[in-house]
Amino acid sequence: MFEKITVASAVLDDPLTAFHQIDRLLAAAVRYKRPVYLELPRDQVNVRPDGPHRLPAGLPPSDPDALREAVDETASMLLAAKRPVILADVEIHRFGLQDDLLALAESTGMPIATTILGKSVVSESHPLFAGIYEGAMGRSEVTECVEQSDCLLMLGCFLTDINLGIFTANLDPSRCIDATSEDLRIRHHHYSDVRLDDFIRALVDRKLKPARTPVPPRPDPLSSPWVAQKNAPMTTSRLFARLNRVLNDQTVVIADIGDSLFGAADLWMSRRTEFISPAYYTSMGFAVPAAVGAGMASPATRVLVIVGDGAFQMTGMELSTIARYGLNPIVIVLNNHGYTTERLPVERHVQRHPRVALPQDPRGSGRRPGPRSPHRG
Known about the structure:
The protein is an alpha/beta fold. The chain contains 13 helices and 13 strands. The protein is globular and about 75 Å long.
């Protein structure tokens, strides 16, 4: 099972190959910035190598010829374009390439849009920040900026269901340059053995001056004061408007999947890499245990967790770990009484097949689970 969710895995059941396997997996973790899995049988715990251990040579460099040709083709596309745009994603976070991304954007003047998985890869107060691209689910100005670009430079992007706005994105491969840690595709050409970091830095060194694309205007969520309204229902929009005024330079936001993530997409991240989310529906329950890691990694920051009631039920017990280590996150549970992602397909199925009955509400009212009244939320 772990082979499906890791970049490399191994069972260390052979002393003759175990240490080579350890080196191979650690190299893969460094190379791709993704999880690896090592299984250590109990009878192998005290095994020692028979011979001296040779350290691996390190990460292989880019193929210089492939890198040069890839940068030549990219530069030609960018200089010929009338509306070039950068779309940055999570691998810019993972590989620590934020400074290189900013150097490229500031030297070329190209606006930077990010996916929801790459949110806060740059400060959202930067003048070249264009907004969050979510296909048809996002702001129309950002969608237009990205999808009407005649040269879209995609850096470290994972083209998943959430990143593509539940498959509503409209990106033409013939106008895209798609560079990741595993592949580099320019239009329909593929280049092998070109590292993402080398590719971005080589573009910076070219000192390109493409045409300027206007940065779409972005509404300021802090432009109007937030005022408490006595006896008014607490709606999701008012909650996130209030949270926007709580955030500061010492806050890290962790959003679980679903409504928590979509609502948090509009939070204003003034620093970079201060917003963390899996942005995969198969990662429900990520946020509360992620607060443990964020709190351990940066004790001086205050972690704000936004999680749905369904995801909270999956891993909420990690609050005991948080208490054990003296961490102090703020955990907000958005409770709509059900796994909405699963509930909607079930309701559609029932509409097509009326003989199928939905489960009764556990509180005994006889009605099916649904959103709570905003007065009780």
